[in-house]
Design brief:
The chain is α/β, with parallel strands linked by helices and 499 residues long. The chain has helices spanning 40-59, 62-78, 80-91, 95-112, 115-118, 154-165, 180-191, 206-214, 227-239, 262-274, 292-307, 328-343, 379-382, 398-407, 421-430, 466-472; strands spanning 2-4, 6-8, 11-13, 20-25, 30-36, 122-128, 131-139, 142-146, 169-173, 199-201, 218-224, 243-247, 252-256, 284-289, 347-350, 369-372, 389-392, 410-411, 413-417, 435-438, 454-455, 458-459, 474-482. The protein is built from 16 helices and 23 strands.
């Protein structure tokens, strides 16, 4: 069986810890490979080599670092099909969705090509007599990223491209569930001209994560994953004096106003709720129709759409809406939460529990589920299910709908569907959620804006990508320089006195 190791000092190396994790093919349920889990010692050695490689990389002028990113973009386009196929085989998402995963990462790499501009700093001429003041952005040194399974191309690129282009060395600890694409990205970066040792990819679990958090050389840590782990990493990383930003889980609400185009809203909900089997931090998992009649109309439109969803393996090509979930544990957790919804009295209007796919009985497929009459006290409302399960929570008024989104512990994304500009504007202004869509169900900001939630969806202050990434991966140094008048004044024969 294939064994995946790490990427250290510009080449693939086998792990030495003797510990491994299984990598499934979620469509068939077979274990297709094993991935080495790095020990603390392996992590520390890779960090020491990265620290040795970093000063020369940081000393290279920013255009040359940007050119590495330019070449990387070309290589990502060249290898798009191979990357997407590998990604789908380990993650289970459809091929077009896997290409989207690579594409949204690639766009952040494109943004990083502008590094010479973003790293320019600030300058004040004549801040005082003969005094200039300037601020420069300098790299942190060695930074690290810990990433989740659900976007194995995009999120590693969101982390490593800005960190590297700022002149840092970077330690990537990708998800142990789907580690092949991150290793391929490291190979492409080397081909693009990245010096060896500047990027180290270590596969692993809690042991390597803890080694990152405790390693005194690592100055900054970026994390994306579930909220309990985000909070743990934030607290432990900050306690050891690092700069830390952690992005966590979500429960994204979509408000449907009575004046919304109901076909448009239903189509949007089906794509945003069930795409990628609901395994997106920006998935809509709660629909909030305003008014009983709106709710009835919405359910009428949703049911046939949800029942018609095509679930299958990525090998079926474009004719599949979503694939399997990532592990048998994820499938079982979704089934348990569906049962808890039923036990709590929610109405399961589309029941995907008995779903099975001929020829793929061992795969981790979950049929689509639609719940109506969900209430805020239910576990299915409070928890992130991370599966193809959409809950409808009926609200009597707009204020009630807004309050639901505001009172929920998570605050990653939200959306409103309406034809009324006043309602849309009020919602965007008042809601305490980081990313808002107006008639857009998945409002993922583009690379040159920033990405981040509020409340329990984030720990730390700066967002991902956009201008914030350059702030996170650099430190500001401000110089005050005074040059007393000298040689240009000519020779002086009298003793200088202070006036
Ligand atoms: P996860 O928290 O299980 O794992 C994320 C990373 O943390 C992995 O690299 C994993 O190896 C590591 N990890 C897991 N358990 C750990 C532990 N006990 N100690 C130290 N490290 C540990 O998350 P996941 O299941 O891979 O990803 C899904 C989650 O990520 C969902 O909650 C989703 O909402 C969230 N997510 C959030 C965003 C965002 O930007 N807010 C984006 C994508 C995914």
């Amino acid at each position: 069986m294939e064994e995946l190791g790490h990427w250290i000092n510009g080449r693939r190396v086998a792990g030495t810890s003797g510990r491994f994790a299984d990598i499934w093919n979620p469509a068939t349920g077979e274990v297709q490979a094993k991935v080495a889990l790095a020990s603390g010692g392996e992590l520390d050695a890779a960090v020491a080599d990265a620290a040795a490689a970093q000063p020369a990389w940081a000393a290279m002028n920013p255009q040359r670092r940007a050119r590495v990113m330019m070449a990387f973009v070309q290589l990502l386009h060249r290898d798009m099909d191979t990357l997407a196929k590998t990604l789908s085989r380990e993650h289970g998402k459809t091929l077009p969705d896997a290409k989207g995963d690579v594409q949204r990462g690639l766009e952040v790499v494109e943004f990083c090509i502008g590094a010479p501009h973003h790293l320019k700093g600030e300058f004040t001429n004549s801040a005082g007599p003969g005094i200039d003041m300037y601020s420069m952005r300098q790299p942190l040194g060695v930074a690290a990223g810990i990433t989740p399974f659900n976007f194995p191309a995009m999120i590693p690129m969101w982390k490593m491209a800005p960190a590297l282009v700022c002149g840092n060395a970077f330690i990537l600890k990708p998800s142990e569930r789907d580690p092949s694409v991150p290793l391929m990205l490291a190979e492409l970066l080397q081909e693009a001209g990245l010096p060896d040792g500047v990027l180290q990819v270590l596969n692993g679990d809690k042991e390597s994560v803890d080694a990152i958090l405790d390693n005194p050389v690592i100055q900054g840590v970026g994390f994306v994953g579930s909220t309990p782990i985000a909070q743990y990493i934030y607290e432990r990383g900050c306690a050891s004096g690092k700069r830390v930003q952690c992005f966590g889980g979500a429960k994204n609400h979509m408000i449907i106003m009575p004046d919304a185009d109901m076909d448009q809203a239903a189509d949007a909900l089906v794509g945003a709720g069930y795409g990628a089997a609901g395994e997106r931090c920006m998935a809509i998992s709660v629909a909030v129709p305003v008014g009983g009649e709106t709710a009835d109309r919405l359910i009428e439109k949703l049911v046939p759409r949800v029942e018609a969803l095509k679930v299958g393996p990525y090998t079926s090509g474009e004719d599949v809406d979503y694939g399997p979930v990532i592990t048998p544990m994820a499938r079982d957790s979704i089934h348990r939460l569906v049962q808890s919804g039923l036990d709590a009295g929610a109405e399961l209007v589309v029941d995907g529990r008995d779903f099975s796919l001929q020829g793929y009985e061992g795969g981790f497929f979950v049929g689509p589920h639609l719940f109506d009459h969900v209430t805020p006290d239910m576990e299915i409302y409070q928890k992130e299910i991370f599966g193809p399960v959409l809950s409808v929570v009926r609200a009597g008024t707009y204020e009630e709908a807004l309050k639901l989104a505001m009172d929920h512990a998570y605050g990653n994304g939200t959306a409103i569907f309406t034809r009324d500009g006043d309602a849309a504007r009020d919602f965007a202004d008042r809601v305490n959620v980081g990313m808002v869509g107006i008639n857009v169900p998945i409002p993922v900001p583009l690379a040159y804006h920033t990405f981040g939630g509020w409340k329990k969806s984030v720990f730390g202050d700066l967002n991902q990508h956009g201008a914030d990434a350059f702030r996170f991966y650099t430190r500001t140094k401000t110089v005050t320089a005074r040059w007393p008048s000298g040689i240009k004044e000519g020779r002086a024969f009298t003793i200088p006195v202070m006036q």
